[in-house]
Write a structure and sequence with these properties.
Elements lengths: L1 H30 L9 H22 L3 H12 L11 H25 L1 H11 L14 H18 L3 H19 L6 H7 L6 H7 L4 H4 L9 H5 L29 H6 L5
Helix pairs in contact: 1-7, 2-6, 3-6, 3-7, 4-5, 4-6, 4-7
């Protein structure tokens, strides 16, 4: 009964937190935009938010309970490492947050290294601007592969449902935060960047220059980029560089939802 109640309220909790954070960040963008938009948000948001809605519907259809459901399955069946070690609930939750964030970092790097995965991931990089809506712009295939990875990691370690839910909420919030078209004050940004991925840090990853786009893969904490040698320090004097794909940074079709859905299959 407890698991059923948890599963029932999981989606509602995520939606409420997502909506609240999205509204706050969009308001921040409107009040203190870091970069002047060259393209009307309305032209981009229809594709980006549309992609997010499609992703959510497909994931809910194929994985009704998502990664949290995988955690509940692991708990019922006593599967995974944590279920066979003497760890407290809080220790398992903390370890789950760290391990899942590391998994997403490694996944992100893999999507840049393997050509067939890059064909899918380039849909995200095709956005000619970066703002809160870019955090939703992932092809459904990428979302499905990411869910399979998360579910596998969750079951392998036997992560607690509460820890997985917390990570999903944190991941969504962090992605919207570091894609926002805004910037923290310089001194504060340098301090925050030692722990979290900031807007200045992540904007480099969306550069049309692939030497920059293949840096700063983290979504939440910046530790992994430091640890694995993919960190690139942001310089605000050079953050006005072009955003998007190197071969077509401002292609009009990159603003069309149905074209983007077919993009990985186009030559």
């Amino acid at each position: 009964m407890a698991n059923n109640t948890f599963a029932t309220h999981e989606a509602s909790a995520r939606l409420i937190v997502f909506a609240a954070i999205a509204v706050i960040l969009i308001f921040w963008e409107r009040r203190a935009a870091a970069h002047t938009a060259r393209i009307s948000p309305g032209h981009r948001w229809s594709a980006n938010f549309g992609m997010g809605i499609i992703d959510t519907l497909i994931l809910r259809l194929i994985f009704p309970a998502g990664a949290v459901g995988a955690a509940m399955l692991a708990a019922r069946q006593q599967m995974g490492i944590f279920n066979h070690l003497s760890v407290t609930g809080s220790e398992a939750i903390a370890a789950s947050l760290v391990l899942l964030d590391l998994s997403i970092y490694l996944q992100h790097r893999l999507f840049h290294v393997l050509p067939w995965l890059w064909l899918v991931h380039r849909v995200h990089h095709a956005d000619p601007e970066v703002d809160v809506s870019t955090a939703l712009r992932f092809h459904p295939l990428e979302s499905l592969l990411s869910m399979l990875l998360k579910a596998g990691v969750v079951i392998c370690f036997g992560m607690p449902p509460l820890g997985v839910l917390a990570f999903e909420i944190v991941l969504n919030a962090a992605a919207m935060f570091n894609h926002a078209n805004a910037s923290l004050p310089s001194r504060l940004e340098r301090c925050v960047r030692f722990v979290l991925v900031t807007q200045d840090m992540h904007r480099i990853h969306h550069s049309t220059h692939m030497t920059e786009a293949n840096r700063n893969f983290g979504f939440c904490v910046s530790w992994w980029d430091w640890l694995f040698g993919s960190y690139c320090a942001p310089d605000r004097s050079s953050l006005q560089s072009s955003i998007g794909l190197p071969d077509a940074p401002a292609a009009p079709e990159h603003l069309r939802l149905f074209w983007l859905l077919s993009m990985p299959f186009r030559r």
